[in-house]
Amino acid sequence: MTGCSAARPAPGPTAGRAACCCSRACPPALRRGRAARYAASRNRYVRFQSLMVRLAADPSTALRLMAEYPDPFSACEVGEIMAVLRRGMLPIAYEPLIGSPSRNLRIVGLNIVRQFGIEEAERLLLRIVSGDENPELVREALYTLCALRRPLTRRAVSGRLSAMSPAERKALLRYVVAEGYSPGPLRRLLDERERPYCESLVQTYKRSLA
To answer: Phi/psi at 153 (nearest 5 deg)?
Structure first.
């Protein structure tokens, strides 16, 4: 298969390979048109690769295309988008993403803040934690605050923690300890049953680093 003329819609993974071929071999305008053929494929991988080809062909359409994407981005898909961002191919500001009504755009915005260590986003993160009704976005905002090493003793954070299920609290606690938070301030966020677990986690990570 060579050039653009060989790229034709086909079922299954073949369509994904054809879309990738378009990405390498075609001028941007033709690339967008050919990749768009695969946007409605029944194969999720093909749909997502169609999106990535179109993002690379015209970064100015990134916000619209990601907002229109029919599936919630998986963690792996967000990882692919972040890899493109790190290469400088998608110059996107995080604030419009986090403030968007689109779930996908907000998830990408939170990942931008987390991976690029944007501490100035703390105000927006706390706003999500304290007032957003989407549990997934609240959880992502909490993990992002942890990744930025921001204080977790604020009322907005402690209030959300108290409303989380025991399993969610344990998962977050493991992440917090792995990020190197001091156990002292953490004790104020935990009840009597959780403090021994926190102490054991701290000791485990200390031993693994020794």
So the answer is: -90, 5
